[in-house]
User: Fold Cyclic di-GMP-binding protein from Klebsiella pneumoniae.
Amino acid sequence: MPFYDPRDNRPLKLPMIFPGSPAVTQQQAAAIVASWFGSKAGWRGQQFPVYFNELPDRNAIVFATNDKRPDFLRDHPPVKAPTIEMIDNPNDPYVKLLVIFGRDDNDLLLAAKGIAQGNISVPRQQRHRGRHQNPAAASALRRAELGAHRPLGHLR
Assistant:
């Protein structure tokens, strides 16, 4: 997993990228994701530097909606549901970006909660998390569609 390696004894440094000054809901989504990664880092410590519409030279988390996205994602097609996608950094294909997309800020919050609850894994292709009326059916569907048998932290 390019975003966290449990064998690395150094503090986790994982930048968070926003298109501009984040709204409260975007901040909540970022806090949930940071908390999840922070819990994985444990005693090592962690830092989550914030970038606005720019790319760091390391792996990072990006928060974007259809209407508000960093310039480097301007050509990405609009999403139709909360979406989590791992992509190459446009400046360096060896650096990865975990992009948390949504139609709006509420979708970002749903996707962040999905990560924290462990219902979403991110294989090499993009995955979606839709809204379902029946929680049991939704859970079964996520396990089948999203490979929930592999936690996000164990992906390679």
Observations:
- Residues 12-154 form a domain with the Chitobiase; domain 2 fold (CATH 3.30.379).
